[in-house]
């Protein structure tokens, strides 16, 4: 059996654009709530979309795709006083119809993403979730924080 070398790690295409989008999500003075990265046909990770409408955002999480997202969650914490809080989440998504070889690559390629997206409160990797929305993400963040 001949050794053919290590598998090629995906490259983050246009790192400057991703950095700008990342800073925009983190900025309290913008409406941008998320950025979405996807794989191109050339196996590069590209900035696909940014925005503030979470309804449109979550429609991209289908069974046939691998995605990375950076999300800003603004919410109120109830108690004696209502406190406004913000959580930043780095999310990896692997759809149920993605081939095993491509599924495995996502885990290694996350390091490429983390070279730009460095500051976040929680990292999640979701597979085959149904009904993915902001409430589900917040629930997963809370579960991760209690572990």
Summarize it.
With 147 residues, this protein is α/β, with parallel strands linked by helices. The protein has helices at 15-26, 54-58, 100-114, 134-146, and strands spanning 11-12, 34-39, 44-51, 66-77, 83-94, 122-127.
Tag the structure with descriptive keywords.
actin-binding; actin filament binding; 6-stranded mixed sheet; 147 residues; alpha/beta; cytoskeleton; ADF-H; Severin; cytoplasm
Topology:
Elements: E1 11-12, H1 15-26, E2 34-39, E3 44-51, H2 54-58, E4 66-77, E5 83-94, H3 100-114, E6 122-127, H4 134-146
Report on this model:
- With 147 residues, the chain is an alpha/beta fold.
- The chain has one domain (11-146): Severin (3-Layer(aba) Sandwich).
- It contains four helices and six strands; from the N terminus they run βαββαββαβα.
- The chain has a six-stranded mixed sheet with strand order 1-3-2-4-5-6, sandwiched between helices.
- β4 (66-77) and β5 (83-94) form a beta hairpin.
- The chain is globular.
- The topology string of helices and strands comes to EHEEHEEHEH
What is the SS-derived class? alpha/beta
CATH class: Alpha Beta
CATH fourth-tier homologous superfamily: Severin
CATH topology: Severin
Portion of residues within helices: 25-40%
Number of helices: 4
**How much β-strand is present in the residues?**
25-35%
Q: Which regions contain 5 or more consecutive residues with pLDDT less than 50?
A: 1-7
Order of strands side by side in the largest beta sheet? Answer: 1-3-2-4-5-6
Largest sheet: 6 strands, mixed
**Secondary-structure arrangement, i.e. CATH architecture:** 3-Layer(aba) Sandwich
Q: Taking all residues together, what is the mean pLDDT?
A: 86
Radius of gyration, CA atoms, in whole angstroms: 16 Å
Shape annotation: globular
Count of folded domains = 1
**Alpha-carbon distance between the termini?**
44 Å
The total count of strands amounts to 6
Family: Belongs to the actin-binding proteins ADF family. Coactosin subfamily.
Protein name: Coactosin-like protein
Keywords: Actin-binding, Cytoplasm, Cytoskeleton
Subunit structure: Interacts with 5-lipoxygenase (ALOX5/5LO) in a calcium-independent manner. Binds to F-actin with a stoichiometry of 1:2.
């Amino acid at each position: 059996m001949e050794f053919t070398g290590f598998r090629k790690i995906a490259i983050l295409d246009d790192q400057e654009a991703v950095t700008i989008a990342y800073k925009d999500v983190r900025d309290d003075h913008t409406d941008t709530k998320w950025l979405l990265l996807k794989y191109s046909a050339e196996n590069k990770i590209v900035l696909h979309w940014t925005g503030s409408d979470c309804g449109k955002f979550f429609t991209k999480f289908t069974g046939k795709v691998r995605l990375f997202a950076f999300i800003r969650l603004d919410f109120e914490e109830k108690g004696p006083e209502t406190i406004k809080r913000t959580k930043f989440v780095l999310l990896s998504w692997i759809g149920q119809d993605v081939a095993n070889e491509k599924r495995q690559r996502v885990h290694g390629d996350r390091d490429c993403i983390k070279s730009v997206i460095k500051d976040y409160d929680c990292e999640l990797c979701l597979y085959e979730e149904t009904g993915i929305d902001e409430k589900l993400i917040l629930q997963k963040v809370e579960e991760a924080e209690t572990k």
